[in-house]
């Protein structure tokens, strides 16, 4: 043991602790609003019907084996995944200047993208990445792991419970040329606050002017609006405008494949030659990191993306999930504003996008929700809309009302 005396004990992660406390709580009306995964109206994990169908096809396909996939992943998968996010008519794809790599879900895509930047990006000074304040907590660790220092940029304004657009633009303008900005493509985690198309265009103007690099994280395509194309709008717009960028893609949420770890990294370069060189280096990095990527999840998603019938079914399943979440927003909003007439403005519940919502509750109110109402939520006021359902929404609204009064 004396070899490991330098290892300090790390305190447990808040969200995991919250879930553990929820599980042992005997209170009948307890609610878990901390979960980062979709739940159906009965608070159960949902295996998408299209995934069940595709799984059955894979199981019955006796031509499949367990050989290694190519280092960069299953080609039918990465090609279809690129079209899904960049658009099937994307000039980046037709001009051969997009490089796509199969990754260990969105986390692996962020890691490989960060690692690639740390090795090859022309940083202007020390390697830094600008992260929205707040952002998905893991972003900090992922960039630190590869020696890129995270720096905050203004994003969320607690006064308006919305976007600090002026602060955001200011940060873009003040950053050194060629700085890397991490952008959530849609359904910002944890705030649920996204820029409007007009705001995206203004952000794009500064990015182009200052030759900044856009590191897009897209973990929720389809989850924001229910429409895959609409949720990819900002990424496609930036590609069209010639913004240098990469995109991290995950099928955890939109296909409910959390544990299968299906993702991709897409790097869009200026020409085919640069793309070929980048591809060769990404292969080297991938090999030393994970070797060959796993096959099952990639085969599943490949089947769904490449079979028009399954693809249509998938889009319906996504609408089911996104629709339920949007309905919960409406119901919670209505209960607060019309039934309980809760003090304060609650428009943000309706306007925020995706699985998460920043309620605007302060730390003390959050603690009261947990300790007094048995409604488990993060101390920053974030709730997961997926934790709400027709059985729990009234109790949540009633408790919110009591806690803020
Ligand atoms: N990025 C963001 C913003 C996320 O919210 C998540 C999931 N919590 C991920 C990436 C990665 O998720 P996964 O590795 O499961 O795809």
TrEMBL record:
This is Aspartate aminotransferase. GO terms for cellular component: cytosol. InterPro entries: Aminotransferase_I/II_large, Asp_trans, NHTrfase_class1_PyrdxlP-BS, PyrdxlP-dep_Trfase, PyrdxlP-dep_Trfase_major, PyrdxlP-dep_Trfase_small. It comes from Coprinellus micaceus (Glistening ink-cap mushroom). Its cofactor is pyridoxal 5'-phosphate. Belongs to the class-I pyridoxal-phosphate-dependent aminotransferase family. GO terms for biological process: aspartate biosynthetic process. CDD domains: AAT_like. Homodimer. Residues 29-400 form the Aminotransferase class I/classII large domain.
């Amino acid at each position: 043991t004396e070899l490991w005396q330098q290892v300090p004990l790390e305190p447990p992660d808040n969200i995991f602790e919250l879930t553990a406390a929820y599980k042992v709580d005997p209170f009948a009306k307890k609610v878990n609003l901390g979960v980062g995964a979709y739940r159906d109206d009965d608070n159960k994990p949902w295996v998408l019907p299209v995934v069940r169908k595709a799984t059955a096809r894979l199981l019955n396909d006796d031509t499949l084996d367990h050989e290694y996939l190519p280092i960069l992943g299953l080609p039918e998968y990465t090609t279809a995944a690129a079209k899904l996010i960049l658009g099937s008519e994307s000039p980046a794809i037709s001009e051969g200047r997009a490089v796509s790599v199969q990754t260990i879900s969105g986390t692996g895509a962020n890691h490989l993208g960060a690692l690639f930047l740390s090795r090859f990006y022309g940083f202007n000074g020390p390697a830094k990445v600008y992260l929205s304040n707040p952002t998905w907590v893991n972003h900090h660790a992922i960039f630190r792991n590869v020696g890129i220092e995270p720096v905050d940029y203004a994003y969320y304004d607690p006064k308006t419970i919305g976007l600090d657009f002026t602060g955001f633009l200011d940060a873009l303008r003040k950053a050194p040329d060629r700085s890397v900005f991490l952008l959530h493509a849609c359904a910002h985690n944890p705030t649920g606050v996204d820029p409007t198309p007009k705001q995206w265009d203004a952000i794009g103007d500064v990015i182009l002017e200052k030759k900044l690099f856009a590191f897009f994280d897209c973990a929720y395509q389809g989850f924001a609006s229910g429409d895959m194309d609409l949720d990819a709008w900002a990424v496609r717009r930036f590609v069209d405008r010639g913004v240098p960028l990469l995109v991290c893609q995950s099928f955890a949420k939109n296909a409910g494949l959390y544990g299968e770890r299906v993702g991709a990294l897409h790097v869009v370069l200026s020409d085919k030659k640069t793309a070929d060189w980048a591809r060769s280096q990404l292969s080297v990095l991938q090999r030393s990191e994970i070797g060959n990527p796993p096959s099952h999840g990639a085969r599943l998603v490949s089947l769904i993306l490449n079979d028009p019938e399954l693809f249509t079914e998938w889009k319906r399943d996504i609408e089911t999930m996104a629709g339920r979440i949007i309905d919960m927003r409406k119901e919670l909003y209505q209960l607060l504003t019309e039934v309980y007439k809760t003090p304060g403005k609650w428009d943000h519940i309706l306007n925020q996008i995706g699985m998460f919502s920043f309620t605007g509750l302060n730390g003390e109110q959050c603690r009261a929700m947990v300790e007094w109402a048995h409604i488990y939520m993060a101390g920053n006021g974030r709730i997961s809309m997926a934790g709400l359902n027709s059985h729990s929404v009234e109790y949540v609204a009633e408790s919110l009302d009591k806690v803020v009064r």
